[in-house]
UniProtKB/TrEMBL annotation:
Domain Thioredoxin: 9-167
CDD domains reported in the protein's UniProt record: PRX_like1
Entry GO MF terms: antioxidant activity; oxidoreductase activity
Protein's name in the database: Peroxiredoxin-like protein
Pfam families in alphabetical order: AhpC-TSA
Length: 195
């Protein structure tokens, strides 16, 4: 699997609107999160070892920031013909198995993913209350946390304190500060585009 870095998007860019089905049977759009002070949009999937490693980190952050007014949403765009594990049915299974605590949407046509400019899983976008891009980067400075990608992922062991960059950006957003001046790209498997 090729390790692909996220690309830089102009800070302040408006969030593209979407209307996509979720594993809970509902459809979600930007308006679904209208009262949130911030919105974290994560392009992710079920099969990629980097995405798998990110799920517990993201659900922990979603729980921590829920009462602070920040919403999270995951979007899986991968072609299920190439990667059956990324099908909508398997998404429903993983939603329960991994205790995902925010909406997990399916971008079957991949149009929304293209509008955002997402390129890898996970690819993380943070928007402010006006839905302007505030942060696009990695979860932390121990990312990617995978030693091998030819099977189950193995988190890297670190004897230093990990800098929580996504968490720092969310706290900065809530404090009313300008976007972080340094935004390091996330990295993961490339999005599996339809052929």
């Amino acid at each position: 699997m090729a390790l692909t870095p996220s690309t830089q998007t102009q800070i302040g860019s408006p969030a593209p609107n979407f209307n996509l089905p979720a594993t809970d049977g509902k459809n979600y759009s930007l308006d679904s999160f209208a009262t949130s002070k911030g919105l974290v949009v994560i392009f992710t999937c079920n099969h990629c070892p980097y995405a798998k490693a990110a799920w517990p980190l993201l659900t922990k952050l979603a729980a921590e920031f829920k009462d602070k007014g920040v919403a999270f949403v995951g979007i899986n765009p991968n072609d299920e013909k190439q990667y059956p594990e990324d099908s909508f049915e398997v998404m429903k299974q993983k939603f329960a198995k991994w205790h995902i605590n925010f909406p997990y949407l399916r971008d079957e046509e991949q149009n929304i993913t293209r509008q955002f400019g997402a390129v890898c899983t996970p690819d993380i976008f943070v928007f402010d209350k006006d839905r302007k891009l505030y942060y696009r980067g990695r979860i932390n400075d121990n990312w990617p946390p995978v030693e091998k990608v030819d099977g189950e992922y193995e988190p890297k062991q670190s004897d230093r304190e990990v800098k929580e960059e996504l968490k720092g950006a969310l706290n900065s957003l809530l404090d009313g500060n300008p976007p972080p001046s340094v935004q390091n790209p996330s990295m993961g498997c490339s999005i599996k585009w339809k052929t």
